[in-house]
Each structure stands twice: as structure tokens, then as C-alpha cells.
Design a protein that fits this description.
Bound molecules: FE2/S2 (inorganic) cluster
Structural class: alpha+beta
Distance between the termini: 49 Å
Radius of gyration: 15 Å
Strand order of the largest sheet: 2-1-5-3-4
Strand content: 15-25%
CATH architecture of the largest domain: Roll
Number of helices: 6
Largest sheet: 5 strands, mixed
CATH superfamily of the largest domain: Beta-grasp domain
Length: 158
Amino acid sequence: MATYTMTVNGASVSVNVDDPNTPLLYILQENVHLQGPKFGCGLGQCGCCTVLLNGAPIRSCTTGIAAAAGGTIVSIEGLGTLANPHPIQQAFISQQAMQCGFCLSGPMLYGKAFIDANPGATSAQILNALGQTPLLCRCHSHPRMLNALSLYAQGKTQ
Ligand code: FES
Ligand code: FES
């Protein structure tokens, strides 16, 4: 048994875990009680479990807790609040970019990381960047998500 400490959405979290390869996703769901990162495939192939680790999007289903220890983790619920959503969340709302929302962590956090590093990115550049990694949406909402991400890249929310 070892103790791992990290910051999750601004709060310090310590957990005792037997296996250092325990998926970070399990800790975020079962110990921290987050509902944003989802278990989709468990194999790194869909993006539903995405969180930012030290600012970079990662697949928490295939990231062991030991690899995240000491890090700063942000999930989609850590971006903003209901009363004060983050601009990227406002853009997704204005474009009605999600249907069930199950996949949302992937497109929103991969999109945010790319656009924050590439302000003013075009729709084609965003599509190309996010196309480098599988981000699956069973509701086929990708076009609306791209619209929302393009708005965010332009500094707009609607
Ligand atoms: S659940 Fe992690 S990539 Fe699918
Ligand atoms: S909005 Fe339902 S899976 Fe993407």
C-alpha cells in the first residue's frame, strides 16, 4: 500500500492504493467522485476519460496512479461552474454541441489544450489536430463540437 497525492480541480487529494498501475480514472471516479471523466473503452481508444495532467490531455483509463502522483489534474468540471462556465463550456452550450455528453471530456479538453497553445487556430487546424487521436462520439456530434471549438479559438462563445 502506498499513498499518492495530487491536486484535482484545485483541491489536494491523497489516496492509499495497493497497485501503482491502478488507473487514474478509477481514483477520480471512486475516490474523488468526479462524474466528468467517463469509462468508455478502458483501452485508450475513445477519449471519454480525458483529463488535463499538468496542462496536457491524457487518457486517465490507461494512466496509472503512480504516473499522476504529484501532478495537477483538471477535469471538465474543474474548468468552470454552472454559474460561471468557462468560455469553452459556454461555446459548447451555445452550439448545443453535445447530446448525451458522455464523450465530452475528450473533445473539450483536447480542443482546449490545442487552442490555448494555438490561439486563433482555424477550423481546419483544429480538425487536423484533434484528428491525430481517436475521439469517439456515439451521438455523432463532432460537427457541432468543431463549431464550438472554432468559436472558442476566435475568442467567442456564440
Ligand atoms: S475510456 Fe479511456 S480512452 Fe476510452
Ligand atoms: S455527445 Fe453523446 S457520445 Fe458524444
